[in-house]
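BUG: 3D viewer hangs when loading the predicted structure for this chain

Environment: internal workstation, default settings.
Expected: structure renders.
Actual: progress bar stalls at 90%.

Input used:
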Amino acid sequence: MKLFTALALTLLSPTSVEGCSRVFQNVYNKTASGRSMDWGFSFEDVLFINPPGQEMDGNAGDRSVTWTSKYGSVTSSIIGFFSGMGDAAKEFGIPEGGCEGLVFSKDGGSDGVNSEGLGIHMLYLGEEDGTKYAEPSTTEDVNISFMRWTRYILDNFATVAEAIEGLKKVKAIRDAVCKDVPITDGQGHVLGAHIALEDATGDSAVIEHVGGEWQFYHSRTDALVMTNEPNYAEQKKILAQYSPWGGPTELPDNLPGSVASPDRMVRLEYYLQYTPEPKSEPEAIANVRSLIGTTNVPFGAPYGGGVYPTWWASFINPKDQIYYFDWAFTPNMVWVDLNEVAWDELNGQSIKLHPQDIELVGNVLCNFVTLDGEDPELGVCTGGDASAKVLAVNQKTLRGVAAALATSSIRN
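Structure tokens produced before the viewer hung:
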């Protein structure tokens, strides 16, 4: 069997994937979050900038929830793979137009931050690990597909507390995607998932859908790290076995070092306690980047019976609404500062960026294009003085990130 056919089949395996980690440093004034994406193949992730005022729905049938986006956002989406991009999609048999029923700019959000500083990170938690979606409502317009959780949250809410109250009003249904792909035998595939949220005030939450209902772990102190299986309640029981949290196992002498989900959680929780106070925003990002680096999986490394490397990591400055994206196959980290976006210039349409371009570096707002691949002619990118300002900010931030990485006291 060809390599990518085998990788594509991992989408159908209930025990195949364990990847991804998230951490949030909120102790100091300069807060920052980070997450990694581990998977058996590249999702050919796409970045989108989404304006307020877009008409949206839950893409879950006749009783889908509907909304008009209130806030602008930048999101990372796995829709590239489901749209037929990349070798894995071809081997999986996904047509060039993508899986039936999915919308390129609306489905597949897995990460991002909105204009109010609310950040979201969607990680894998399979049905075999406890995820159980709700039965769809037949009487109310409250149903939503997991492929639109990210947009629903970032479009509608400014804080973690608001998002939790909003999620209580919708039903996350069991929605199989790609039923039209022959390899799924018409059954499609259901991706089990859980999410972590943080906001500009330093609030945080881990949210799961276990037992057919939302489970909310809302805390500024105890919901700062999330990995994958088992479910969050069980993860906390594992953590309680170690000395910093009242258990008999001493750290750091017995700090677990494998790529297994519980081991990654223990490492992040332990190292997070020792994160130094950052002197600048770039240093805050550098500190969290170092934390996430302790959980990354090298390309080619054996992992749970397969190979599931870290394809990318993202970092968020929630107070300043800056989103950083670090694709593993490119030498440079890129970012979007949402404060530079003139939302009315987007005319209600999302714009996109393929972050796999090896020439991208720094502030990439002016590299985004329309969904048709045209120049959106953003004012900040076309005016002489404005362009000079973006370039100056870009160069200043690059120097700051480089200096912070050189001086950060946490090392991988």
